[in-house]
């Protein structure tokens, strides 16, 4: 499959720092490579959350590049002709046999949190990613040495960002994925943040599709961030611009609230405003 990338929210601060939220779908085996990039706030579809039968109905995903064996991490020459045909048939045959095995696990009463795992190598994953810094990701993943499926994902992301025009937000105005213009006009900022957080969290089992009333979304938000332990990752996608208190040529920019940036730059992240957003290590005696 070709990966897809859709801009959900695109903003830029008065200091020229762009904050982008992008919804992705890509081949599940490259997810571990995407996870190595710590600048992204992320939520992803979980095999623990999606019913087994729903995953069994999805198409079999194949590699974009059936490469010939050679020393090193990177295949160069592609399989062609009968060799490619045979490789594809073997791949799809292994996937069908895996599906049969998973159906057997379900028949035995196996729970999806482990029965779904064998389906991952030929499946896809939905991911929501938010970041201010993409340059290093693109530098590594658009390079010719990147795995073809990972490079295709980076190409899709960059194309989506190149075609998008970010909206200027001032301090106090919020970057809020999945909040509609009508909701922005009628709801308080606090409620808008709750809606956005809850809808980002829904990606765990299914991307937000516009359905869901405000009361149920608010309840989902509260289950995530009021409960203990706090499940705070969906609150990494909402942010408001910070104020630069020192911004002179030749000097490092100094921010008013750097402790609220999290993994963003120049933006105050909603997660960092939540009480108990992370469990801290106990202080040990020296």
Verbal overview:
The chain is 33% helix and 15% strand. The chain is of the alpha+beta class and 286 residues long. It folds into two domains: 4-163, Gyrase A, domain 2 (2-Layer Sandwich), CATH 3.30.1360.170; 169-273, no CATH class. A hairpin with a 5-residue loop joins strand 1 (4-12) and strand 2.
Short description:
The chain has about 290 residues and is α+β, with helices and mostly antiparallel strands. Helix content is about 35%, strand content about 15%. It has 9 helices and 9 strands.
Distance between the termini: 54 Å
Query: What's the helix-strand series?
Result: EEHEHHHEHHEHHHEEEE
Strand content: 15-25%
Instruction: Determine Rg (CA atoms, Å).
Output: 21 Å
* Strand order, largest beta sheet: 3-4-2-1-5
Q: How many strands, which pairing sense, and closed or not: the largest β-sheet?
A: 5 strands, mixed
Dominant shape: globular
pLDDT < 50 runs, ≥5 residues: none
Given helix and strand content, the structural type is alpha+beta
Mean pLDDT: 94
- CATH architecture tag of the largest domain: 2-Layer Sandwich
Counting copies of identical and different chains, the oligomeric state is single chain
Estimate nothing, just give the exact number of structural domains.
Answer: 2
Helix content: 25-40%
Give the total of beta strands. 9
